[in-house]
Amino acid sequence: MPPEFGDPNAPTRPVWLVRQTTDGPQLPDAITEADAAWARAQGFAGRTGQICLLPDHAGGIVGALYGIGRESPRHHRERYVLATAAEKLPAGNWRLANQPAGFDPALGALGWLFAQYRFARYKKAEPASAHLVCPEGVDAKRISALAEGEFLVRDLINTPASDMGPAQLEQAARDLAARHGAQISVITGDELIARNFPMIHAVGRAGAEPPRLLDLRFEGRGPRVTLVGKGVCFDTGGLDIKPASSMALMKKDMGGAANVLGLADTLARLGMTRDLNLRVLIPAVENAISGNAFRPGDILTSRKGLTVEINNTDAEGRLVLADALALADEEAPELLISMATLTGAARVALGPDLPPFFCDDDAVAAAMQAAGMAHADPVWRMPFWNPYETMIEPAIADLDNAPGGGFAGAITAALFLRRFTGKARHYLHFDIYGWQPSAAPGRPKGGAGQGMRAILNALPELLK
Hints:
Layout: E1 13-18, E2 20-21, E3 24-25, H1 33-41, E4 51-55, E5 61-67, H2 83-88, E6 92-96, H3 105-114, E7 130-132, H4 140-158, H5 166-180, E8 183-188, H6 191-194, H7 198-204, E9 212-219, E10 224-229, E11 231-235, H8 244-247, H9 255-269, E12 277-287, E13 299-301, E14 307-309, H10 317-329, E15 335-340, H11 344-350, E16 356-359, H12 362-374, E17 380-382, E18 399-400, H13 409-418, E19 426-431, E20 435-436, E21 446-447, H14 452-462
Parallel strand pairs: 1-5, 1-6, 6-7, 10-12, 10-15, 11-12, 14-18, 15-19, 16-17
Antiparallel strand pairs: 2-3, 4-5, 8-9, 9-12, 13-14, 16-19, 20-21
Keywords: Aminopeptidase, Hydrolase, Manganese, Protease
Organism: Paracoccus mangrovi
Protein name: Leucyl aminopeptidase family protein
């Protein structure tokens, strides 16, 4: 069910956006006195998401008032202010009849499209019935591309591991490459050993499907940008097995892979890959249990040559990312970004809705955080805190994949990954959740994109 705007040539009904104030709703002058009286009689106050349908004399609906709340940012609790309108207005074509001060029509249109998402692979779902004609001055192609990328992420994460293992994730990458004319190569199974990706192989060799490394290239004219996404299609925890309650959502442990594919899809739809030399790397594995599973206490040698002591097989995401990052860094890209559902510590620190990112460059970090806030895709900077480097240095190997003590888990994971970079001009790591734990307007419970629009909109600043 792709996102779609309403037909501008078909009949439409107006929806007036109404601010809430201490003196009551700011009803538009364009509505009649009778409509204003009707709204007051219905108790319409302009609260965010509040709807008042306007009737005609025959009992039909001629328009609607829709509350967008107070203008003060401190009252903005809904990320996508028009999403509830998309979900609750009657079927048909709707157009914005006004745009109050402080209202962002592009973000409003995006929220409306996001609300059209349905995951209908296994259960029938009614399609969206209320459609918005793209507001004047809004780039419909851009908003549609953003929504398409988000829908792809949601679909990939929502699909269970029975239908989204390493082979199916590879097919999703191949479909994206075919759709946009990108090149793709895949290294599978024991070939990973021959091609020097030992940690990807070690983590994935016990899975029902062979591990693999997906490598997509969009050959553009511009600077090198490489995206690396964690593709752990299911995570049992390995021999350090998770409890059942912690395993329930592990189909989403490929959320980093889903997000970099969604971002690449969006960039391609917008034509931005023509001006970038874009590469996408995804180590796709299952962290499973079998006789050949890697063990606690094992020492693995990475692609970069650094040795890693395994103190917890459930800290596997950083291992597969490390080999992929080492490969990416060999080309010395201008911008290297990793995205992963990596640590519970990040969720404890910032919750599921605000993913942290790590970056050594203050100007780059400021541009990223500003872009996220401006485009309703918030991210929050956390530090590569150098004094914690000793925490990831065990006695008998170069690195420890799971330092004890329970402190600074997101930071030590990020420091571990940074050890496999160094040639890239800028390196950023995003520790995302990739999941909406409870439904919100425009964001149904389930898989979620995080950081994609922040990255996309920050790119001009990041590549200066």
